[in-house]
Write a structure and sequence with these properties.
This protein is α/β, with parallel strands linked by helices. The chain has a single domain, classed as Double Stranded RNA Binding Domain (2-Layer Sandwich). The strands form 2 sheets. A 6-stranded mixed sheet has the order 1-8-7-4-2-3. Strand 5 and strand 6 form a beta hairpin. Helix 2 packs parallel to helix 3.
Length: about 180
């Protein structure tokens, strides 16, 4: 009995360590979560349509988005791929679900940064962003799934890195749907 406990504990420890090691360096600051209405069977839905997208952006200098990248289109592209992987097809004429997303961005956000355990910390400008995706039942207009991600805005990133960060966050949100 004790041997099974130790084997199980070792397997759990290895799983946890490998999960931590799997987060790419470019995504270390990204946090995501999602929630599905427990009374809804998501596999009962087969179609969706995009209802809306909104951006709440405080970026007076235009530093957050690489010039050639349309972040809204990239978010839709990544969400579409995840929805297709979940068995849903886009149907703007007769959708069962309505998809909505919003981006919040504050380039002037402040954060307390500690240099070490002994220091009190110092206030520093650390731009913050948030992304919220929601699926709404088209018949009842009640949300059935919501995913959210937040991260620091990293200036000067390549288009490929920004796409990879978005993919990491969006794929993570859809993991438990």
């Amino acid at each position: 009995m004790m041997k099974k406990f130790w084997v199980s504990s070792l397997v759990l420890l290895i799983s946890l360590l490998s999960a931590c090691a799997m987060t790419p360096e470019y995504a270390k600051d990204i946090e995501y979560a999602s929630e599905t209405d427990p009374t809804v069977k998501m596999d009962g839905f087969k179609s969706y349509a995009w209802l809306a997208a909104a951006a709440i952006v405080n970026d007076s200098e235009g530093r957050w988005e690489p010039p050639a990248l349309d972040v809204d289109s990239e978010i839709k592209f990544l969400a579409d791929a995840n929805l297709r992987n979940k068995g849903l097809t886009e149907d703007s004429a007769n959708p069962e679900l309505l998809a909505v997303f919003t981006i919040g961005l504050d380039m002037d956000a402040l954060k307390t940064i500690k240099l070490d355990e002994a220091s009190e910390g110092m206030i520093k400008n650390v731009p913050q962003s948030a992304l919220v995706l929601m699926l709404v039942n088209a018949q009842t207009l009640v949300p059935v799934w919501i995913g959210a991600a937040k991260a620091e805005v990293k200036s000067g990133l390549s288009e490929e890195t920004v796409k990879a960060r978005l993919k990491y966050a969006i794929d993570g949100m859809f993991e438990t749907m």
